[in-house]
Write a structure and sequence with these properties.
CATH superfamily of the largest domain: Alkaline Phosphatase, subunit A
Number of helices: 21
Low-confidence stretches: 86-94, 128-132, 171-177, 617-621
Strand content: 5-15%
Shape: globular
Structural class: alpha/beta
CATH topology of the largest domain: Alkaline Phosphatase, subunit A
Distance between the termini: 50 Å
CATH architecture of the largest domain: 3-Layer(aba) Sandwich
Number of strands: 16
Mean pLDDT: 84
Length: 621
């Protein structure tokens, strides 16, 4: 009865929270049944009152996990992670809100506990004597439990392997990005217990050596004594980020069959300041990593995703800095908040409001995420105009996300069959052309309000298209060919300033935070890993390998280094720029050592939750 009830509880949990489960029917049933047997099955091996004590404890814990996750999702749009246990004290501040979310539906999750308690009391009243299972019966029961559990979980893993080709994303949390999708497959209890188990394998603390190394680095950094050239140029202006999905720099100012691929962005390049040598900083988290690096001036982790693994750490990035200066902070995204665990990460980053799929209507399904960019921008505009000013607002587009599928009537580029494009390249150009039109309309709509004239607007790609579109368009802009896929455009629009033209200095996501602080006239409390790209005399970009995190390449305005695949520094290539003449690797040694230390400092601060320790001057309001 408890196992059947447990399966039903999982079903109603997913159903009541409106988590899509249509593609998965047998999978959640198999996973819930397997876990139910694993949780409640051992009771038949116990005797007398121990059986009911065990079932009471397990049923109560199950009820509490169901209830906490249900309430938290209702409140934030995401699920609690096991790492939240480290910050349970901070969660007590929302108890007043929890009271308003209580519902009769929670009674279903406690039904198992009530059932066990009732049977236990009834058995005590009747004083029935319980027969003791023979040893062979206990052995048989144990084998049956193991077989049923293996069958249940085996079915889940088998189906995942058949569909995806791997099962690593189920038990390897760093590869998880769609939390709702996982919960719909295996149930909230499997998710919560699995997350709790993996918590033991993750390090969330820093040792004394880590703290000393970070402290030494900070103390060695020069202090800013004279404000930069553009300091305060846009003081008290709103800040609007438009982070464009898969916006590859190769399409800017390029044509296909006589048509501009991004005509509106090309126009904005002329109206604003365009950075043509701008690079992404991403790891396995792609878009989420781009958000993280941009807002915190830290490198994305190479082997895991901060939005997932370290969502409850203390961050003191751009949203917190601007909140302390009286800015309102909000973020807009047309996807569900559980995607990339944003529901848990956004409050930690310093956002006061976050708008997601539930805040938008979908008049027409466009692209893989349904909400088309044009509808997203159109519906976001009135939300922006209603925000207290000045504000920081980050807008994240969706339609140009792989697999780049659009309705036929929205594919408005005329591309001949002999254009030399593969399927992905063809559809990428169509989708980015659509997104370009949506951005152009949005900017024109902004100009009709008072926001455009009082805002700094940053338009940039989160990462490249990963379609090798540069080669297809015969673009050869990167110093090293294998880093061209990370080259994206950055356009700064500032109507009341003289920020115009083209800047060819190498820069990346890490540099936006300090650049914005300088333009707004805010003195940074501590040195950052990024630089103000408008005034720095030593621009630098570091690209890393995934998994290992080793440096792949380093770009400056005078030198470029590309590491050898064997990892031996002396086997790498060192070039002088802009002539690209090969010189001895030793001429890049100091550059390599300096940037290696910075990368290590960044990783240590994130993994060890040391950011707050060294940024106490930017506490939460």
């Amino acid at each position: 009865m408890l196992i059947i009830l447990f399966v039903l509880q999982n079903y109603f949990f997913i159903s009541w929270l409106h988590i899509t489960q249509d593609p998965y029917i047998l999978r959640p049933i198999a996973a819930s049944t397997a876990l139910g047997i694993l949780l409640f099955g051992p009771a038949i091996l116990l005797n007398k009152w121990m059986r009911y004590l065990y079932l009471s404890i397990v049923s109560l814990l199950v009820a509490l996990i169901f209830s906490f996750q249900f309430l938290y999702y209702t409140y934030s749009g995401g699920f609690l992670q096991a790492s939240a246990l480290f910050y349970v004290g901070e969660g007590l501040t929302v108890l007043g809100t929890v009271k308003t979310l209580l519902t009769y539906r929670l009674l279903l999750f406690f039904t198992g506990f009530f059932l066990v308690a009732g049977v236990w009391i009834w058995m005590e009243i009747r004083r029935r004597k319980e027969s003791i299972l023979l040893l062979k019966e206990k052995i048989g029961a144990s084998i049956l439990i193991v077989i049923l559990v293996i069958l249940g979980y085996g079915y889940v893993f088998f189906k995942e392997y058949r569909e995806v080709g791997t099962v690593s994303h189920i038990y390897h949390y760093s590869e998880l990005y769609d939390v709702n999708g996982l919960v719909s497959k295996i149930g909230i209890l499997n998710f919560s217990l699995g997350d709790l188990l993996t918590l033991g394998f993750r390090s969330h603390t820093a040792n004394a050596e880590d703290v000393h190394s970070v402290q030494s680095w900070y103390q060695s950094q020069p202090q800013q004594t004279v404000p930069g050239k553009y300091f305060g140029l846009a003081k008290n202006e709103n800040v609007i980020f438009i982070q464009v999905e898969s916006l590859d720099n190769a399409v800017i100012n390029k044509k296909i069959n006589g048509q501009e691929i991004t005509p509106y962005l090309n126009q904005l390049v002329q109206e604003g300041l365009y950075f043509s040598n701008y690079f992404t900083q991403i790891g396995p988290g792609n878009t989420a990593d781009a958000e993280f690096s941009t807002l915190n001036a830290l490198y994305a982790l190479p082997d895991t995703v901060a939005f997932i693994e370290y969502a409850y750490h203390h961050y003191r990035g751009l949203p917190w800095l601007l909140r302390n200066q009286g800015y309102y902070t909000a973020t807009f995204h047309g996807d569900v908040l559980s995607f990339w665990n944003r529901a848990n990460m956004y409050p930690q980053l310093g956002y006061e409001a976050w708008f997601s799929r539930k805040d938008y209507t979908i008049p027409r399904s466009i692209g893989v995420y349904d909400l088309g960019d044009e509808d997203f921008f159109t519906q976001t505009l009135p939300k922006l105009t209603s925000l207290p000013q000045p504000f920081l607002a980050t807008l994240i587009t969706l339609t140009s996300h792989t697999p780049f599928e659009l309705p036929a009537d929205l594919e408005t580029l005329s591309i001949p069959d002999n254009a030399g494009l593969d399927w992905f390249q063809y559809h990428y150009l169509q989708s980015i052309h659509y997104t370009d039109q949506a951005i152009g309309k949005f900017i024109e709509q902004l100009k009709q309000t008072n926001l455009y004239d009082h805002s700094l607007i940053f338009i940039f790609g989160d990462h490249g298209s990963l379609t090798n579109i540069g080669n297809a368009l015969h673009v050869d802009e990167a110093v090293f060919p294998d880093i061209q896929d990370g080259q994206v455009p950055l356009i700064i629009l500032s109507p009341h300033t003289a920020l115009r033209g083209v800047n060819n200095s190498p820069c990346s996501h890490l540099d936006l935070y300090p650049t914005i602080a300088n333009l707004l006239g805010i003195t940074l409390p501590i040195p950052l890993l990024g630089q103000d790209i408008l005034t720095t005399k030593h621009p630098v970009v570091v690209r890393r390998y995934l998994v290992s995190g080793a440096i792949k390449s380093i770009l400056t305005d005078t030198l470029a280094y590309h590491a050898s695949t064997d990892g031996v520094f002396e086997h790498g290539d060192c070039l002088t720029l802009p002539d690209k003449q090969k010189v001895s690797p030793e001429q890049c040694r100091l550059l390599y050592d300096t940037e290696t230390i910075k990368v290590r400092i960044s990783d240590t601060m994130i993994r060890g939750d040391l950011i707050k320790t060294f940024q106490e001057n930017t506490k939460e309001p």
